Amino acid sequence: MKPERVFTPLLCLLTMAMSVACGRADDNASKAVSASATSLKNKGSIALFAGDMGGPGNINGTGTDARFRSLWGIAIDPDGNLFVSDYHRLRKITQEAVVSSFASSETSNSDEMLKMDAADLKKINSPGRMVGDAEGNIFVLDQRNCSIRKLTPAGIASIVAGGACTNTAIDSPVDVARFTALKGIALDREGNLFVSDSNAIRKITPAGMVGTVAGQAKVEGARDGKGGSARFSGPAGLVADPAGNIYIADQYNGTIRKLTPAGVVTTIAGLAGKNGSENGKGRAARFDMPSGVALDAAGNIYVADTVNAMIRKITPGGVVTNFVSNGKRDNPQGVTRAAFFLPPRDIVSDGRGKLYIIDESSVHKISADRVVTTVAGSSKVAIPPEYWSPVFMTSTPGNMVADVRGDLYVTESRFPFTLIHKISPMGAVSRFVDVKAEFARIAGLTVDASGNLYVADSIGTVRKISAAGVTTPLAGMPDQLGLADGAGSDARFKVPNGIALTSSGDVLLVDTANQLVRKVTADGVTSTFARIPLGQVVEDSRVKQSRFWPSVANGIAIDGNANVYVADGIHHVIFKISPAGVSSVFAGSTGQKGSADGSGMAARFNRPQGLTLDSKGNLYVADTDNNAVRKITPEGQVSTLIGSANREGFVAGPLPGSLSRPTAVVFSRGALYVSTYQGVVVARDF
Q1: CATH number where 585 lies
Q2: For residue 87, is it within any domain?
């Protein structure tokens, strides 16, 4: 397959729907229009500023322009088309690397829905591994419905066996047979399907009978033997050879097993309970969470060795070697984007010398001479920060703020700590300060004119970091959550979150679990500024646990008239607080999520988080679960500037483009910077 690039942003603009969104049946509803309708009017463009363009999404396209959300299974048809299970979708990849949605249960669009038979009214729920037959049919595991589905080349779906998940495996005719936890599937030359179900291997005959051929469901072990006396631990991927033998990736045992047509199970490679990456023969070799297996025409077995991030080869004589390894997990210098893959999840052979593997969000081809290329999608690669560049960035960035020189400061979560990095106006990334020994999670971040950072740590503190990187406490005490005004360490907060500076140099802080905005003066005196009915992310009992990480950032911004804006991602609204401390809903409707543009309460958001203001008083919102950045004028008119609620994944070019999970926004020197899953992107000239 040779990917041919197409100008995806232009296609997006030409095909985006111009529909009217239905709001509530009130006077405000008539003011609401769909986000896509107004975003088409935008000028300007977006581009990658720092980080990686890869990562999850749901965008169809060609080659690396396509995006996948969470890949779990891969199969190939006789024409060389690939099929992958992606979240609640099945996607098709042609030999020209064109990606389309073959079947979907996550959308109501008629062109992406399964053409269900009358007896198959349920949608596929979390499709898993799959296998193709000689007629082009695809058999896919419906994991949450514990059933096996058949999809014809025309997209017609039917249930082969199973139904609702049960605690007990039931062997019987297919219409009453039941499964407990389907993980792998294979097809032999006689038309028998084999599935790994809990800790058993089960067989579905062409005559419609289901039986257990090896192991016992929900009984764990590592024993070789015949039929029900054998034991497995989390068997996953399966593959059948021409003689009818089934090879099994026994995931939690870290072994590769063989099941003969007579029902005899043996271990051909690896040793149960001994994880590792050593090569060798038979039980001298080691694997770490093998998940998928494939066979070539010569009888070699290829294993997706997940934790080791390798593809291993097992010869017919049982000798294990490394066939392909990304090889650069600890030293990524020189790694090309096409050759780097994340831990593989599944593997399939085309029978002609090529292998195809999937990781979290991309599909790769391995040639017979072990050259790895990316067929479709683009994974976000975790690279240590010393190798950061506009091409590579470490794990997902979080909060972000800009100083007067245009430098960005970006937080990076590495559980259980958070780091801060600095990005110059030219996009050069460096470590600003290593705070991992002092902070649990920096939930809020702001900067003053002198380059001092102020950080809100969710464990209950506000601290100051000088331009030289020296940290000093300002208010609160680590792991001492509560509600108390006072000076310095006498103050108490309960999950401090968003933070901003007033024109006088005071800190305003969103105290999430206390449902307050608190004020901390330059000399560390804390008082209560305003009360706001923020949504609660957890019960109070969990908040009391030390080092709690809030799942929603309450962004905060202050305009030139001293009005304060706070994002409530739980209630999907933006609050406005007057200088006197009086709060009201500025945009959105409490508890009503959506993506409609409109005026004030007619607009809808879906987990809004980061906020920033431009010089004209326009407010920009990182609308995370809509994969969009929204603009709110001083009069409260909401429009969509970047992204679309129906598209996930980064697409550069003319606005609106496409984003993936934006969390923070910063307006600096006429440009809008957005922290997304992939990295930091920048919008200009809008």
Answers
A1: 2.120.10.30
A2: yes
Judgement on whether residues 267 and 406 belong to the same structural domain of the protein: no
CB 680 within 8 A of CB 402: no
Residue 290 CB partners (closer than 8 Å, separation 6+): 236, 237, 249, 250, 251, 254, 255, 256, 270, 303, 304, 305, 306, 312
For 371, other C-beta atoms within 10 Å of its C-beta total 11
Helix (H, G, I), strand (E, B) or coil at 170: strand
Give the number of domains in the chain: 3
Q: How much is the pTM? A: 0.76
Q: What is the pLDDT of residues 403-414, one digit of tens each?
A: 999 999 998 776
Q: CA 566, CA 486: separation in Å to the nearest integer?
A: 23
Expressed as residue numbers, the domain containing 603 is 551-685
Q: How many CB atoms lie within 10 A of CB 655?
A: 23
537, two tokens: 């992310």
For 264, 313, 323, the CA distances from 238, given in Å and listed in that order, are: 15, 15, 19
Among residues 318, 353, 377, the one where a domain terminates is 377
Same domain, 372 and 408: no
Q: Encoding tokens for residue 11? A: 């296609």
The radius of gyration computed from the CA coordinates of the chain, to the nearest angstrom, equals 27
pLDDT for 546: 44
Q: Could you read off the pLDDT of 500-511 as tens digits, one per residue? A: 999 999 999 999
Residue by residue, DSSP assigns 390-433 as: SS---SPEEEEEE-TTS-EEEEEEETTEEEEEEE-TT--EEEEE
Between 129-133, 245-249, 467-471, 501-505, the lowest mean confidence (pLDDT) is in 467-471
> Which of 647, 669, 594 has the alpha carbon at shortest distance from 20?
594
